[in-house]
Amino acid sequence: MNAQTPPTLHLMVGLPGSGKTTLARRLERELSALRFTPDEWIAGLYGQDLTQATLDAARDPVEGLQWRVASRALSLGLSVILDFGFWTRSERDRFRAQAVELRALCQVHALVVPELELWARLERRNAALPPATFRISREQLGTWWSLFEPPDVTELRNSTYG
């Protein structure tokens, strides 16, 4: 690891349709960082046509495996982008703490979009699903919206830790 430039763990925060993966791909190119987007791995392992139950069951194991690889990459000095959504403050706090344990910085990238705009984006995406994306219903978005804890000003102001 370069002693002058510690690696950074980038947390992509937002609900589906907010632009997380688009930004994560851009950061991957600009920062020469390793990007982990769970839906890409799930589609690669299980295919595109999954029931919601199969998709839900695959998410935690895939994200767990991605974190194991990501944490090793961070320990080797490589910056990492986790495109997991990080809907709750407690989840973001946990990953920030893990980054500190690995002597890495942590940067939060919040993409907070109004619910109606998210739904409009998801409707367009659902009409012509790109590879490695899955259909999302209006009901799912409503449920997820109620669970989402956007970062507050203080969390964003202090989003780089080390």
State the gist of this model.
Helix content is 53%, strand content 13%. With 162 residues, the chain is an alpha/beta fold.
Overall description:
The chain has helices at 20-31, 38-46, 52-75, 89-101, 115-127, 138-147, 153-157, and strands at residues 8-13, 34-36, 80-85, 105-110. It is an alpha/beta fold. It has one domain (8-157): Rossmann fold. The chain has a 4-stranded parallel beta sheet, with helices on both faces. Helix 2 crosses helix 3. 28% of the residues are buried.
Keywords:
162 residues, single chain, 7 helices, Rossmann fold, alpha/beta, 53% helix, four-stranded parallel sheet
Strand line-up across the major sheet: 2-3-1-4
Number of helices: 7
Shape: globular
Radius of gyration: 16 Å
CATH superfamily: P-loop containing nucleotide triphosphate hydrolases
Q: Unreliable segments (pLDDT under 50, ≥5 consecutive)?
A: none
The CATH topology assignment is: Rossmann fold
CATH architecture: 3-Layer(aba) Sandwich
What's the story with the biggest beta sheet? 4 strands, parallel
Per CATH, the class reads Alpha Beta
> Residue-averaged pLDDT, rounded?
94
